[in-house]
Design a protein that fits this description.
Trp_repressor/repl_initiator, 137 residues, WH-like_DNA-bd_sf, plasmid, sequence-specific DNA binding, 4% strand, transposase activity, mainly alpha
């Protein structure tokens, strides 16, 4: 059972919630994370205050902020777009799969070359009749 009770408004936060049941882990969308990080970066607002209002740990918000800043710095340094780790891992797996396929196809081509070489008819060799020492047959 999820029961939320509000107490006397706190001057810093506005209200205090007491949750008496076990909660499932909340999933934050990218847009929500960006909004919270941008809010925490506003002058006069602290990470702790924004995190408390959102109901998350300040360390979680700091982690999101660090990732955003590092990703942006990396993109600027490389003069490139930021790509998520999941996308990079997906592309690396695709490259491994394609390399494996290329290896198989290369091996098949080598086997086919060997098979053709074995199956190809031998070119006839012209044998000259032996000549006597004086040059007559």
């Amino acid at each position: 059972m999820n029961m939320t009770m509000s107490s006397v408004p706190d001057s810093r936060c506005g209200r205090v919630e007491v949750i008496t049941s076990v909660q499932c882990r909340r999933r934050w969308t990218t847009a929500e994370k960006v909004r919270l990080v941008e809010e925490a970066m506003q002058p006069g607002l602290s990470v702790s205050y924004v995190a408390r209002r959102a109901g998350i740990s300040p360390s979680q918000l700091l982690s999101w902020k660090r990732r955003m800043l590092e990703g942006g710095a990396t993109a600027v340094q490389a003069d490139d777009d930021v790509v998520g780790v999941a996308r990079v891992q997906e592309l690396e797996k695709r490259v491994r799969d394609l390399e494996c396929l290329l290896g198989r196809k290369t091996m098949e081509a080598e086997i086919l070359k060997e098979a053709l070489a074995l199956a190809a008819p031998k070119k006839p060799v012209l044998r000259l009749a032996s000549l006597d020492r004086d040059g007559s047959p």
